[in-house]
Amino acid sequence: MPDFPIIDSHVHLYDTTRLRYGWLAGVPQIDRSYGLADFDAARAHVQVDGIVFAEVAVDPGLHIREAEFVQQMANTDARLRGMVAHAPVHKGAAVEQDLHALAHFATLRGIRRLIQGEADPGMCLTPDFIAGVHTVGRHGLPFDICIKSFAMAYALELVRRCPDVQFVLDHIGKPDIRYGLREPWWSQMRELAAMPNVVVKLSGVITEADHAAWTADQVKPYVAHVIETFGFSRVMYGSDWTVSELTHRYPQWVEILDEVLAGCSASELRQVYRGTASRVYQLD
Fold this sequence. Notes:
Elements: E1 6-11, H1 36-43, E2 48-54, H2 63-74, E3 80-86, H3 96-102, E4 108-112, H4 127-138, E5 143-145, H5 152-161, E6 167-169, H6 185-193, E7 198-202, H7 216-230, E8 235-237, H8 250-260, H9 266-280
Parallel strand pairs: 1-2, 2-3, 3-4, 4-5, 5-6, 6-7, 7-8
Helix pairs in contact: 5-6, 6-7, 7-8
């Protein structure tokens, strides 16, 4: 366990009495409100002094209200340093209006528009989507890519077409750990690492394994490959809490990462657990 407080770059918080999240009906285990007090109970003995909120796929049209909800929490808890908000980048340059509205919230540090749930993930290569991502970049904000490994080729092309945008790959690209598949994800991570405008979140990994029968030994090789490929300065710790509750308790993920990172220097550990997130999301 790190002997210093860490920054969690990927935390979901939501209020089901205030906003609507249709997807939660499919995961009854976490279909309730979760706030910072719940986060503190979940993290247990893990020290966390920085939190980056990640948008929670609120129902369409509610993303500005979600940002307002997050900012209100941040106003009372300084640990909530950043917010990766939803913005409809598929609208192309018209997303400018949404970005201007989101800019009123002091915690805004990045934008995400989910790709993983699309029937055709190739939609992220449409002219409008590309234009929207470029617009995000011009606002000085990174764009989080959340996509499943079978569609990684689209993510690679998206990054190629937007070389001036800082990208954050969520959940190490969601490799198919459940069935032990490595290729083509394994090689595609090397391709992605060759593009200097990409960093990766070490988050949401266990949930890509069998939820009832996963083992640490199954997931560790995937994490180790990402760290080896991208290097310590281009990976960041993230819990993916509350989705992580579907498979494991908060401290378990930190313990697994500690095993993967055994033998690393103190500066390398601080880079993974604090430095990369702080730099990319401009938390200081």
